[in-house]
């Protein structure tokens, strides 16, 4: 049993590394699609992503969610908003990479956790710990320094960060799995994207059929490039702890940053290094705070389990336990699940408090990033996305 658990953990870790590695190396892919412009690449990405996930869903015969979604106008409206926001994110990212702004694009995903925290405070009225406030303040200072360094606000970074944070917030409300979510969003994007490609073809600007079969194949593979990392992420999310996924998410912007500096040769004058250093300091503060919170959570859970075992015999002899006076094992189950037990022991209360930091089963990148920075929504479920996931949170190039 232990061997199986270790094997599952290794499989999850490898899938996580593959997912974030692919998202981190994706800047190498978009330049291969030239002479297609960013808008044509974006349209192909929408069309071929739908084709890819549709085939995947046909294979696994997972379509029940679509009928449920169509019967829920509010959720469907949120999917439309998510599709619109991720369109902006994808489009700006592709343009940035193919226009020589890989470093600035990577910055967007470095500051995304900070933007997510700020949105949690402003929109969801969440309360932050002092270290989180300090990290947000350092992040704001970094943006000011980078504004001076670039001679303008780092609008590419800010657009990517805010669009992805908004995407994560909306995705949390929709509550769909990664592949299903990508299918729903690209279904909404499909007709406008296909219409644009037909219009481009009618005006002689479509490169898909004029640059050879190799170019056409690369454009078609945008669907695979979008969906494959998401599949790997899904395999990782169910096998490794949220804290591990939260740390892995930083691989993507790190790889993008290194590619921008070392491969694409983008300039990094001292003031930009200073701005990035402040961003990294903010992320160190967040990660350290999250690890400390994780350790406190683990201790609280361990205490709760120990006390529950000690109280279990008494709980078994007590009629009605778990309905209104939850104690012992039943109380712990009520705290860790959703049984709604009303009377909590000290240990059970500790578990519930711990859950406010680390509850929720990962349903997308959103949970992973939030776990890394220790941010929770009012429901106690993390809600910040990670680059390129195509889901949320905490999911994008």
Describe this structure in words.
The protein is mainly α and 397 residues long. Helix content is 73%, strand content 0%. The radius of gyration is 23 Å and the shape is globular. The two termini are 38 Å apart. Mean pLDDT is 78; it is low at 318-397.
Give the N-terminus to C-terminus distance in angstroms. 38 Å
The amount of beta strand, in percent, is: under 5%
What is the CA-based Rg, rounded? 23 Å
pLDDT average, as an integer?
A: 78
Coarse morphology = globular
List low-confidence stretches.
Answer: 318-397
List keywords for this structure.
397 residues; mainly alpha; 73% helix; disordered C terminus
Topology of this protein?
Layout: H1 2-25, H2 38-60, H3 64-70, H4 73-98, H5 102-122, H6 130-150, H7 155-174, H8 178-202, H9 213-220, H10 222-237, H11 242-248, H12 251-263, H13 270-317, H14 328-336, H15 346-358, H16 365-373
Short description:
This protein has 397 residues and is mainly alpha-helical. Helix content is 73%, strand content 0%.
